[in-house]
Amino acid sequence: MAETAVARLGISIALACRTFGRSETCYRYSPRLSDENEQIADLLIGLTQARKTWGFGLCFLYLRNIQGHGWNHKRVYRIYRELELNLRIKPRKRLKRDKPDELAVPDAPNQVWSMDFMADRLEDGRAFRLLNVLDDFNREGLGIEVDFSLPAERVVRVLNQIIEWRGKPRTIRVDNGPEYISGTLMKWAETHGIGLQHIQPGKPQQNAYVERYNRTVRHEWMGQILFETIAEVQDHATEWLWTYNNDRPNMGIGGITPAQKLKLAA
What we know:
This is Transposase. The protein is of the alpha/beta class. It folds into three domains: 1-30, no CATH class; 33-87; 112-265, Ribonuclease H-like superfamily/Ribonuclease H (Nucleotidyltransferase, domain 5, 2-Layer Sandwich). Helices cover 47% and strands 13% of the residues. It contains eleven helices and five strands. It has helices spanning 2-9, 13-20, 24-28, 33-50, 56-66, 73-82, 152-166, 183-192, 208-222, 230-246, 258-265, and strands at residues 112-121, 127-135, 140-147, 171-174, 195-198.
């Protein structure tokens, strides 16, 4: 009412405030959050354009845990909704089943690694494979190897390369694929004093950490791009792996990155 009186009748602010029982401080107050809200909106737009597969949870964790902003969860979500940045996800009908026992989380790095293969095709239809190696402690991707064929000898070579910079694991959890039950891999593991833990056939939930990682790999880049050559796939995998380990919050380890969790354990 004071603002209307000043605007329409041309009276002074002091007279309008006395008339309606308001202080001049209250009259002259302007919200301080508008500039910050614009900053939040700009960051959210830029982040969702750069990371098209990230939902609000990952965006908020990135702003808080990676960039260090202390904005309230509800405030950021309100702006996220106003900008209509929500991912459009079509729900799928799922059958109910017994919930499997949760995997134990190792207490330190290099206690348990997980390995698994993925498959896809190039633009010309040729099939290729990916070998993913993961440290269960901090969900760190230790390597992604790409080629048309990845026999047991190649698996051993990849593991030797990772061990050179990461150190030797106590146990490696694998499924029952031919590469994992071959004499080559078993002999290598015995020579290095590494245990091979095979999951039960038909029980992929027993290797849940790397299975969840595989889903992220397919969702965030492998299922988004049509590659022409193996070299292109390997280059993209290497670039994405750095982002995953150092720049992408992981909800499975408390909303921080694998690199941050490894640093906290040092």
